[in-house]
Amino acid sequence: MAPAAVGTSLFLMFGLPLDTWIRLAVWLVIGLAIYAAYGRRHSRLPVSAERSARL
User: I need a labelling partner for 1 at 20 to 30 A (CA). Which of 15, 30, 38, 45 fits?
Assistant: First the structure.
């Protein structure tokens, strides 16, 4: 059953128009940028000496 679902999903995805894929890529890049910026600012990892010298 699972291979049929994967095949159907791929069939539907490849039938989408190009502008839909472009919108997906743009929103993906925006989301990843927000995610990276949030993670960088709210990280609990130790701050390196170089970074603390700039602050």
Answer: 15
